[in-house]
Structure to design on (166 residues):
């Protein structure tokens, strides 16, 4: 019997630089799709304490970087949908080039990984018996390529609680 190496499949587009300025629609799911962040009643999401931590950490993203804005988002019982805007923050012409590690830190994956780690860290600090895992591995993304798509994603996010079937 042949042993095959374990290979992690990526959800990212091959040969796309996720440091590229633009808008990205991301979906981050909870571990095993468990409803950890609250519940939807009367087409409105009502966050529990973990949901409030998620909201707080999401809103802190732009305060921790000078190149990220968060746009529309919604936290649902078992996932978060959000729009991340990576801004063009080109260094001055006479500036030193960014070290490779710092340049990589500007990627969408690092932003989301840092966000997820922050939520988990705060949950672990605040609860005696925190959840073993909060997040599923990785996240889903879609590159938003024009204003029409951006508007459509914003509408989708706004209407997500209305269509909740959970």
């Amino acid at each position: 019997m042949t042993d095959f190496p374990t290979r992690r499949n990526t959800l990212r587009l091959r040969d796309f630089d996720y440091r590229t300025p633009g808008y990205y629609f991301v979906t981050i799911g909870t571990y095993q799709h468990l409803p950890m962040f609250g519940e939807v009643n009367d087409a409105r999401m009502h966050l529990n304490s973990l949901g409030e931590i998620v909201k707080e950490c999401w809103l802190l993203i732009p305060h921790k970087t000078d190149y990220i804005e968060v746009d529309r988002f919604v936290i649902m019982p078992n996932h978060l949908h959000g729009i991340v805007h990576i801004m063009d923050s080109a260094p001055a012409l006479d500036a030193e080039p960014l070290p490779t590690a710092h340049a990589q830190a500007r990627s969408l994956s690092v932003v989301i990984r840092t966000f997820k780690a922050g939520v988990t860290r705060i949950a672990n600090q605040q609860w005696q018996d925190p959840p073993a895992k909060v997040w599923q591995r990785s996240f889903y993304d879609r590159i938003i390529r024009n204003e029409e798509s951006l508007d459509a994603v914003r509408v989708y996010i706004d209407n997500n609680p209305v269509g909740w079937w959970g």
